[in-house]
Amino acid sequence: MGFVLGMDGGGTATGAVILRQGRECARIAAGGINYNSYPPGQIREHLQEIAAKCQELGFAPSHCTGVGIGAAGISNPGAVPFLKQCIKECGFVCPVVVMGDHEAALRGGLMGEPGALLIAGTGSICLARNKAGRLYRTGGYGHLIDDGGSAYAIGRDIRQWYSLMTEGEKRPCSRKRFSRNFASILWRDLQALSMAAVREKGRSPGLRCY
User: Fold this and answer.
1) Which of 72, 90, 97, 184 could be a cystine partner for 51, CB 3.0 to 4.6 Å?
2) CB 101 within 8 A of CB 10
3) Are residues 10 and 97 part of one domain?
4) What is the rounded CA–CA span in Å between residue 199 and residue 78?
């Protein structure tokens, strides 16, 4: 019997759900598939992991009748064709629909009604739809120039704030407050993360603590 597979691919992790005749059968967790955050080889491995788990659960990819992917990073022109090719390589021979995770969430949450959606996860974006069906978007243009209020931005701001504090540009009272709330974060970790030649966006919100 066939089944459909839905994926929510964020900047840090991917959640997948298997549905059969409209009923949820299983959930699968894997690494992120954001084309702007992970190298192609790593994204392929994460999708292969999902396909393997489907097989282990008794849902052979070849029996899948449809795959729907809501993923971050699809504004990159290479993202959609790459994700579709990976799905095909994993053994899924069914139709594949790929859209932004923000649009998928808006569609699923509003079920055709007008409204707005605000996402603040690893990245951030706001998307709204009016009664005429027209979409309005703000944010979501990547962690280097945008994504205000996201986990990455918060981690970046903490690093910046602490670096200024250690250089004496912040008031002494701020040091006490910061030390009380964030004493577990080692300064050398902040420096290493900021100056690393290769950085993954998902590492910032998951900074190693003690």
Assistant:
1) 90
2) yes
3) yes
4) 20
Q: What single DSSP character describes residue 175?
A: H
Q: Is residue 77 part of a domain?
A: yes
- Residue among 7, 28, 32 nearest 206 (CA): 32
CATH no. for residue 48?
3.30.420.40
Those residues of the chain that have pLDDT short of 50 are: 183-184, 197-198, 207-210
Alpha-carbon torsion (187, 190, 192, 195), positive or negative: negative
Query: 180 and 121 in one domain?
Result: no
Give the domain extent around 121: 113-139
Both tokens of 32, joined, read: 């992120």
pTM as predicted: 0.68
pLDDT confidence of residue 207: 47
Tell me which DSSP letter residue 11 carries. S
Please tell me the distance from the alpha carbon of residue 68 to that of residue 81, in angstroms, as a whole number.
Answer: 14
